[in-house]
Amino acid sequence: MIKAKNPLVEMDGDQMTRVIWKLVKEKLIAPFVDIPLEYYDLGLGHRDQTEDKVTHDAALAIKRHKVGVKCATITPSIAQVQEYHLKKAWVSPNGTIRSELDGTVFRKPILAKGIPVAVRSWKKPIVIGRHAYGDIYKATELAVPGPGKVELVYTPASGAPERRTIHEFKGPGVVMGIHNTEKSVRSFARACIRYALDQKIDLWFSSKDTISKTYHTFFKNIFAEETAAHAAEMAQAGIHYRYLLIDDAVAQMMKHEGGIIWALMNYDGDVQSDMVAAGFGSLGMMTSELVSPDGCYEFEAAHGTVARHYKDHVAGKPTSTNSVATIFAWSGALRKRGQLDATPELCAFADRLEKAVLDAITEGTMTRDLARLTHETADPPRESWVTTEGFIEAVAKRLT
Ligand code: NAP
Ligand code: MG
Q1: 267-308, pLDDT tens digit by residue?
Q2: 115, 121, 228 from 279: Cα distances, Å
Q3: Which residue among 57, 150, 175, 388 sits deepest, i.e. has the most Cβ atoms within 10 Å of its Cβ?
């Protein structure tokens, strides 16, 4: 039994991923690692009961203990508020935790030998660094009902206001005001540089500064300043920084072999990370790591609660949901705990766990989403895939 020196913040979640969560903990973690877990139940029912206080408490716990691991959670839609008789449409727990930690989200695909990737040139992971603050995610929007002038007004703490006309409407339309802060963009740039140095991979940043000469250029300039400030370290690590226009970068990416981190503004990161996940094969093979500027880490699978599979599970039908990203969230958190506390045995266990998962897949034990890729058909033969439980059992067997 490997003993950890400090606790891990554990955040439970919803639906199919909650089912997987329990299995992974019971079969792959508890028998091998003795680690105190500070448990927060972010399942929708408990969030509703506590009026979402539990999410805020969990975020504060990550700040205290530095490392957390999170299960996927439901962000309730209006329909789900009625379906589950919720007090209100609670906001995304991930959004709450991200704002509390001012973190950057890194999404990294997991490559397994034998699983073909959709984009043939991709040989190594493309890590997406998504800025997780502001832009359209903190926008103020207004439907313009009819003719009139819309302005942008800055009223400084002291001094005269500054105004710009957005548009003189001749009829109905719509406007949106978005913002970002220097502090947040700078810590985003630093987090990306730290990640690139850590992993010894090149860093790209892209935006549309040719069109957005103030807003996007603001980001571009900060990246230029921060990479210049870290030039010596980057040279020593043998890594490079490149700025590309977003449309150029998208095209380049299709021809690239991977092994880079691609830093993106909030919306671009949201969209491109799903493109990259799909290009590497399956949503079940993408992990997500939130890194705060003061060195807190949260690990999770990048996918959601896999609602459709959960319906089958509840109906008593067998499921074949991929648990790889969830297992890698645990191994990532354990490795980070081991690194922060100088417990190399814990890091070695994380490596062993990941190897057991990848070996199982390479030797042909896989869930249906991966069998679809190896068999190049939407409906692979039954003998080509195992159930949700079967996969986790197979990994457990390899660990013992
Ligand atoms: P999802 O859980 O990501 O699943 C969408 C589809 O992708 C699934 O139906 C499945 O396709 C495939 N898929 C995703 N993960 C898979 C896995 N591990 N193994 C096999 N296939 C996988 O998205 P959703 O069902 O649209 O969203 C469900 C809930 O998740 C929503 O309430 C949303 O708010 C929440 N969500 C949470 C997070 C988070 O907490 N990080 C992130 C995103 C969404 P097939 O059905 O074709 O097999
Ligand atoms: Mg998204």
Answers
A1: 999 899 888 988 888 889 999 999 887 889 999 999 999 999
A2: 12, 11, 32
A3: 388
- Closest approach atom of ligand 1 to CA 75: 34
| pLDDT recorded at residue 72 | 98
Same domain? 127 vs 237: yes
pTM of the model: 0.88
**Residue 333 domain-assigned?**
yes
Please, what are the averages of pLDDT over each run of 10 residues along the chain (400 residues)? 96 98 98 97 98 97 98 95 94 89 88 88 94 88 97 95 97 97 94 91 97 98 98 96 97 94 95 88 89 90 95 97 98 97 97 97 95 93 97 96
Task: Choose one of 77, 283, 303, 368 to mutate for the ligand 1 pocket test, by most ligand atoms within 8 angstroms of C-beta.
Answer: 303
- Residue 39's CB: how many other CB atoms inside 10 A? 13
Q: Are residues 19 and 37 in the same domain?
A: yes
Query: Can you tell me which residue has the tokens 């319906």?
Result: 311
Please identify which residue in the block is written with the tokens 């039994």: 1
Domain count, the chain: 3
How far away, in angstroms, is 218 Cα from ligand 2 center? 24
d(Cα 259, Cα 109) in Å, to the nearest integer? 11
Q: Cα separation of 311 and 309, whole Å? A: 5
pLDDT of residue 177: 96
Domain for residue 128, yes or no? yes
Closest of 83, 133, 98, 70 to residue 265, by C-alpha: 133
Q: Is residue 87 part of a domain?
A: yes
Same domain, 259 and 200: yes
The number of the ligand 1 atom at minimal distance from the alpha carbon of 368 is 20
Judgement on whether residues 300 and 170 belong to the same structural domain of the protein: no
Which protein residues touch ligand 1 with a CB less than 6 Å away?
Answer: 72-75, 94, 283-284, 300, 303-308, 321-322, 369
CATH number of the domain at 190, please.
3.40.718.10
Q: Hey, which of 305, 377, 379 would you mutate to test ligand 1's pocket, going by the most ligand atoms within 8 Å of its Cβ? A: 305
Cα(369)–Cα(174) distance, integer angstroms: 41
| 240 and 336 belong to one structural domain | no
Domain range for 232 is 117-138+178-280
User: Atom 38 in ligand 1: which residue has the minimum CA distance?
Assistant: 304
86 and 212 in a common domain: no
Ligand 1, closest atom to CA 323? 18
Residues 134 and 255 in one domain: yes
Q: Give pLDDT, residue 132.
A: 83
Closest-CA residue, ligand 1 atom 17, reads 284
